[in-house]
């Protein structure tokens, strides 16, 4: 890891270089004087032809001259190497300091620390991510075009106010299950990962079957609200500054809830506070707390034979706990929170909290959050679940259109044999590929 060199040390290294150059120039002048003297002595001795031992003296002087030439420093790298050996810094660092000193004109500043910072795009909620996915689907299904990062970036800036760059958009797509792969006819396409597409297909087929069997479906999930949660925008005028947004997020409240088209599961709302500073609030809900909520709040209040679960943390003990009590768990495919009706409930409740949370004391926020959830009527829950069914049908229709319009694509599978070689297989997106085991 590179170490930061403070301004005083950098300035010292910069000043050492010209000083060393001056010393070398003085040594060079002295070297030339010595060479001149040796040449005079050598010429004089060579003229003494009849004196015994002259040849030995001549050879000694010539060796001395050669040694002087060998120790002579001629290039910049040679004297920089001398400085590097004394200061224990590299020649490249010395060259950078020399260039820096010329550019900054004698003004030296220590670089600031590399502190953690929020991602460029930190304000994207689940609805914005769904909008990005829908925009990609629109390219394939409606426009019959291949989306690229350049075209997507322009449209997302207009539609959802996306503030990131192309690199940020690329990371966002990769983190949400998309890949840029080469298809059969050698054109690169932005496509969804095959395993996630298969998971979604199985999920849609299973949940449709449960609805035909008239099984009740309970949606559950968790979310968070900060003490400083307020609207991002408000009407402001010359004498009205609007809602003041806190610099610090403050205490975080974790909410776990469950409900169906008939309304919330009675007494299933769990609210607790945490002072965790981690960006991902899911770390605040571990297996112990989640299973305790299942045993004490959810299962005792359920009269439904089916549960649709979407915990983001790997609490697979919860599956066994629910199965032991006669309930079935159906997990959402990754990145498809828009198929969970409770996401719409979060949005309703948070809007109500934000509209009232103006200079509200922290002791009253817990009560406000609880009242906001309790104020959501069974009719609103029913409206949300109906909207989810509409989204499910749109995904089914989209998948049928994609199967008719997209050719088979190549999936590279590595390390499939003992030799470790990679092979490419042509796999078609057929219904049989999505069958459950």
UniProtKB/TrEMBL annotation:
<dbReference type="GO" id="GO:0003676">
    <property type="term" value="F:nucleic acid binding"/>
</dbReference>
<dbReference type="InterPro" id="IPR036397">
    <property type="entry name" value="RNaseH_sf"/>
</dbReference>
<protein>
    <recommendedName>
        <fullName>Tc1-like transposase DDE domain-containing protein</fullName>
    </recommendedName>
</protein>
